Amino acid sequence: MARRRWGGSWRLAGRPDHPPLLCSGRRDNGVRLTALDELAVELGLREGQGLAEARAIHPAIDVAEEDPAADRALLEAIADWCDRYTPLVALDGSDGLFLDITGCAHLFGGEQVLLDDILLRLFQMGFKVQGAISGSPGLSWAASRFGAGGVIADSAAQEVLEALSVACLRIEADTIAALNKLGLKRVGDLISMPRAPLARRFGSQVLLRLDQALGHEEEPISPRRPVAFLSVERKLAEAIQAEEDILELASRIAQSLCSSLEARGAGGRVFELVLFRVDGRVFRIVAGASRPLRNPQRIARLFAERLKSVHDELDAGFGFELLRLNVLQHDSYEASQDNLLGKASGEAPLADLIDRVSARLGDDVLQAFQFRESHIPERAVFAYPALGHDAGNEGRQNPAVTTGRERPLRLLSRPEPVEAFAAIVPDGPPSRFRWRRVLHDVARAEGPERISPEWWLDQEAGQERDYFKLEVASGHRFWVYRQGHYSSDYRPTWHMHGIFA
């Protein structure tokens, strides 16, 4: 709310003369305060307090209705921004983040420098943040929310934890209240007690959280995004805005990426270009390839097409200060040689066309078809994106169900009803039929070809189909079928299913 009203750098410029900002929502059959700024806290207001009581104490407060979706979107945006430090970023409730910086701290000059950089940058963007770095997520959570934060050495972990309230162990509120009644208000009080009586009285959750905070029990962090197979980034001394500059830089960093792919004998199938804007907003542009790539120019061309399609959504603002290129999916790469004239094989231009069109218009624009084991025509093939993702990889073999009969060039996605006249009972073709309000006279007919239903899928609902090839007086050839058989109490229906060349 403050950033929207006073700008992202309002903390640097100083808070204007404005009443306290608060959020309210319905809790316990009443409207209560759900979030407060620092000025409201200094005035003695607190979360959970009734809105009417707060207005009676300070009538000038500025209250807005809570918006959990907006809060979540803001936390997600901050998490995206934190990807510049580590790809392992996890959400912690509605107002916190876990960052696994194992192996990353030295890239920023050490843990203390990294933490100071995070807190300073977020402060410059208008957020007041407290953070801690330690050997366990539990201790970092406790020190950042109930302590002074900072970098905590392993040797000082227990000493720091002992001074904190038992609420820092992430246990239930009822358990905290029960511990406080017994005089166990600090973590140090729990550490000095026998473990067996604590487990019998308060359950094993208390001891588990205590061991996690002390680092005796592992506590994995589940990152919100999958970790890229390979990643290369470039930090810029001066922000860039133009698309030409973005593509030029993407091509340069792709060269380093392709060297790493070549060393692993792999090629990228799905690439992600991450753009970190100066004000903290992050843009992610994903492009796929129909076959494994490790050519920097072709990778850059993919993003050139993608930038054309997302041009209106990509707001450069004051520019981008960090670019990162990720390989999200990869495959084994088989090197190929051009012919003696220096020209690529016929597959390469086709793959390049598929990549460019899919990058510009979307993955589902170009479709490929694959056989499936079924005699039912509409089930015998299925479509999948031409980029060749996993949906189509299963069907590179020959079809398991084959037929020597001619099939129409165009198969309707859904059979359409046909009105047939003077059909020879019981198994003959019609002499004329009406389809899409046009009446056709049948000049020649071939059939029937009977296809039985797949009882293991259709069960008793399916009926046999008798297919006919019908050539009409105009020369057009159609594929029509009769569903069911003539009887005294049933009249079968006719359907148009395909058109021959």
UniProtKB/TrEMBL annotation:
Naturally occurring in which organism (per UniProt): Pseudorhizobium halotolerans
Signal peptide segment: none
Domain annotation UmuC: ranges: 19-144
Record-linked PANTHER family: BLR3025 PROTEIN (PTHR35369:SF2), BLR3025 PROTEIN-RELATED (PTHR35369)
Keyword check for Disulfide bond: no
Taxonomy, superkingdom: Bacteria
Keyword presence, DNA damage: yes
Descriptive protein name: DNA polymerase Y family protein
InterPro entries per record: DNA/RNA_pol_sf, SulA_CellDiv_inhibitor, UmuC
